[in-house]
Protein: Methylglyoxal synthase
Amino acid sequence: MNIALIAHDKKKDNLIRFVQKYKSIFTNHQLFATGTTGQRIIDETGLDVHRFQSGPLGGDQEIGAFIANHKMDLILFFRDPLTAQPHEPDVSALIRLCDVYSVPLATNNGTAEILVKAVERGEVENRSTLKKNEREEGN
Ligand SMILES: O=C(CO)COP(=O)(O)O
Structure:
């Protein structure tokens, strides 16, 4: 399963703690992240992470492109709702694409807890498999 991990600056500590807590689950999946978030996860958890550009430099859009190509199965995006982001349009576009493609998205710790437990139980669908099945069924 391809999982994207993203956190705004004031939520990065929060995300790191979350990834450490569920490291045994994350270790079984392919992890992707925006640049700074990804580097911190690598440094502080030892997990293998594919890093995109930093969010303000296009990282959110790169993850969006993966979503549009059915290559991202889950997004955990620890957003900071109290700080204006210079790349707010990119943030909105990423969230919009999750809705366009029905990709599960958590924007806070509480929802992320629920989703990661669903991943552990094997309840989150793999997008590429889902797309292949739809093609075969002619949808
Ligand atoms: O800004 C971000 C998401 O919108 C996160 O980017 P960084 O992980 O590079 O800080």
Summary: DSSP finds seven helices and five strands in the chain. The chain has one domain: 2-136. The chain has a mean pLDDT of 95. The beta strands are 2-7, 30-33, 49-51, 74-78, 105-106.
